[in-house]
Every structure is written in C-alpha cells, then in structure tokens.
Known about the structure:
Layout: H1 2-10, H2 19-33, H3 42-55
Amino acid sequence: xxxxxxxxxxxxxxxxxxxxxxxxxxxxxxxxxRGESKFSDWEDAKKxxxxxxxxxxxxxxxxxxx
Length: 66
C-alpha cells in the first residue's frame, strides 16, 4: 500500500480531481482549520472499524468481514 501511495504522489498531476471531490476535500480542510475534525492513528481506526463490523450484522442478519 505504501508503495502504491508513493507512486501516486509522484504522478499526481495525471490523476484527475473532479469538482465534487475538490469540494469535499476543501470542506474537510476547513473543518480541520476550525478544529472540528477528529483524528485517529491507523491502528485505532482499524480496530474501531473491525469492532463496528462485529457489532452490526449485515442486512441478511449475518456477520461478514471481507
């Protein structure tokens, strides 16, 4: 994943950014500037995500982790 990200960063000028994507990124930046964003380190974020998956069954009533 790190290698992919590094490669993408080196060629960002060829990756199109649509207006709707820029609007989302701009709003997120404003939220950071206003102190309205929360951040988690990667390990905590993964744990929160997996815990949520375990707690909430899918629509079929079964638990699925992909």
